[in-house]
Specification:
The complex is a heterodimer of chains A (338) and B (210). Chain A has helices spanning 16-34, 48-55, 57-60, 81-89, 135-151, 165-174, 179-190, 194-205, 209-213, 221-229, 233-251, 313-325, 331-337; strands spanning 38-39, 45-47, 65-67, 73-76, 99-108, 121-130, 158-164, 217-218, 258-261, 274-280, 288-292, 306-312. Chain A is of the alpha+beta class. Chain B has 210 residues and is of the alpha/beta class. In chain B, the strands form 2 sheets. Chain B has a 6-stranded mixed β-sheet with strand order 2-3-1-4-11-5. In chain B, strands 8-7-9-6-10 form a 5-stranded mixed β-sheet. Helix content of chain B is 30%, strand content 30%. The chains are: A alpha+beta (338), B alpha/beta (210).
Chain lengths: 338, 210
């Protein structure tokens, strides 16, 4: 093998690209700083068991693994949140709450989730707000994310989709779904596989409630439509929380950058409340996401509420680099219009 | 502008006819032309014509916002894309076929030639049959009679090609039709235009003229 070869999913940054990437990182870190988030550096190498607890087995299995001298399984961190959660429950347990922590740190995955996420090393710009379960914490996290994107000059080209996982959970409880039916439905909704979803609704569930979730996507009107759809108290409470959050975002003039999407059910087992995803024009896959994870910290000590998000530094740098290099219309479109 | 990746070959004409019924006309395009890209009259849409297996690739990367491709290709590629519509075009079956049904019985190891290695591994894996998968890229029906394999896993439309090569269907793995797929980011960022196209296609499918 040639020494010139670079492993799949790895890359260099140099010159303009490296400068741009540094600027994106600095912008995010200065926004975190203004919101009183303290920087935390976590171990790059940690026990695999931590991430199995912290991310779930399926996600953790995508990590690079090797063994310690005593035979225990180690991994290059595939995620920062797990480690921050452990620190909150142990090292930082005596500190006053809420804890506001942030980081800019590379994470490693040897298997990408999709072809569009080809990188095996990604730097996460992230923050965690721990010990505050109020609606104001949910709002704060969204405002921090929006402010970073604004500061990067992406004000009119990003979209953050929000959902509350308890809407789906309340429905699956109401319809007494077992684990496999729940997972099956979750996957169909997540893939917006409407033909299969309709078939499953007609033949197995004999109701259209879940199939309707896919279409509940948009602004304020979604809340109204959803209220007519869900009758159980668990889903209704979640919907109310989402509605309040939407009002608060609107009051800050942010409704054009946000969308409610009740069909976003990708990480139901991890998140416990608000969940959201960040999309930016010019990126084929999402560039970030986050949500409330009130069950995680109990794995390492006393239970406490927490919420956080990450933005993908490399994904953002790609988008911004392309904006610089490729103004507006590409040659192929110009040719087509002739 | 919305970019639509269309699988060249089997379903291309049906896909274009359906788009026309939905009010999206790529008049500048003819199947004889070597041009691989075409804009519609309004300038709201452009079509790119690529190999079926490349449709999920373009859509997953967001280079195309959406695409039209067979379910068989999507299952084999495991692409992470949204699947909101079944277009019902180019209907066919993915089957196990061989010279005789006995081929798959009591073999310590079955040799299977296919263009679908992943679906083949999943199908025989679920049955606990050990298989050696021989990956081919075309004329799969030839392989059994020449002794390359015991059976094949391939797409069948009418069954004529199988018959002419002395093969018959042993089992149907799944059905496949043309699917309309959408990139996850485009679905959010171009929600309005994608929604409009989805509605137009749905109306065209239910027989309402655009």
């Amino acid at each position: 093998m040639h020494l010139s070869r670079i492993p799949a999913g790895m890359r260099y940054y140099v010159g303009d690209e490296a400068r741009l990437r540094r600027k994106v990182e600095d912008t995010a870190m200065s926004v975190f700083d203004r919101w009183s988030y303290e920087e935390i550096t976590t171990p790059s190498v940690d026990y695999y068991a931590l991430f199995e607890q912290g991310m779930g087995v399926t996600e953790a299995q995508r990590s690079f693994r090797f063994t310690d001298q005593d035979g225990r399984l180690l991994t290059l961190r595939p995620d920062v949140t797990s480690s921050v959660a452990r620190a909150a429950a142990t090292l930082l347990s005596e500190r006053p709450r809420p804890l506001r922590l942030c980081y800019a740190a590379p994470v490693f995955k040897q298997q990408s989730q999709s072809a569009a996420e080809w990188r095996r090393e990604n730097t996460q710009l992230g923050c965690e707000l721990i010990g505050d379960g109020d609606a104001s914490a949910d709002l704060e996290i969204l405002l921090v994310a929006a402010e970073i994107l604004d500061q990067l000059g992406l004000a009119n080209s990003y979209c953050i989709t929000i959902n509350h996982v308890e809407i789906f959970n309340g429905l699956s409880e109401q319809f007494l779904l077992d684990a496999s039916a729940r997972e099956n439905l979750r996957e169909l909704i997540d893939n917006r596989a409407i033909p299969e979803l309709n078939r499953y609704s007609n033949e197995v569930l004999r109701c259209n409630t879940f199939a309707d979730l896919v279409h509940l996507k948009g602004k304020q009107e979604v809340i109204q439509a959803a209220q007519n759809l869900v009758s159980n108290s668990r889903s209704q409470a979640a919907l109310l929380a989402l509605s309040d959050l939407w009002q608060a975002l609107g009051a800050r003039g942010l409704s054009h950058s946000f969308e409610i999407d009740l069909g976003d059910v990708s990480s139901l087992d991890y998140y416990t409340g608000l969940s959201f995803k960040v999309f930016v024009d010019g990126a084929g896959a999402r560039v970030g996401g986050g949500g409330r994870y009130d069950r995680l910290i109990a794995n390492f000590g006393a239970a406490e509420p927490a919420i956080g998000f990450v933005l993908n530094l490399d994904g953002l740098t790609d988008v911004l680099a392309r904006q610089v290099n490729q103004p507006e219309i590409s040659q192929i479109d110009t040719d087509l219009k002739k | 502008m919305i970019t639509i990746a269309i699988a060249k070959g089997r379903m291309q004409d049906d896909a274009l006819a359906l788009l026309t019924r939905a009010g999206v006309r790529f008049n500048g395009y003819s199947s004889e032309s070597r041009c691989l890209i075409s804009a519609d009259e309004t300038g709201d849409y452009r079509a790119i014509f690529v190999k079926p297996a490349d449709v999920p690739v373009y859509v997953e990367h967001g280079i195309a916002d959406c695409g039209i491709v067979g379910r068989d290709v999507l299952l084999e590629s495991e692409a992470d894309v949204l699947l909101p519509l079944d277009l019902g075009i180019a209907r066919c079956r993915l089957v196990v076929a061989g010279i005789s049904p006995d081929e798959i019985k009591s073999k310590g190891m079955l040799r299977v030639a296919t263009k679908y290695p992943l679906l083949t591994a999943n199908y025989f894996g679920a049955r606990g049959t050990p298989v050696e998968i021989i990956r081919l890229s075309g004329s799969v029906e030839l392989a059994p009679s020449l002794g390359l394999c015991d059976v094949i896993v391939d797409l069948v439309e009418t069954g004529r090609t199988l018959q002419e090569n002395g093969l018959s269907v042993i089992d149907v793995i799944t059905e496949s039709t043309g699917r309309f797929v959408v990139n996850r980011a485009s679905y959010q960022l171009k929600a309005e235009s994608i929604g409009r196209l989805l509605n137009a296609l749905e109306r065209a499918l239910s027989g309402v003229a655009a």
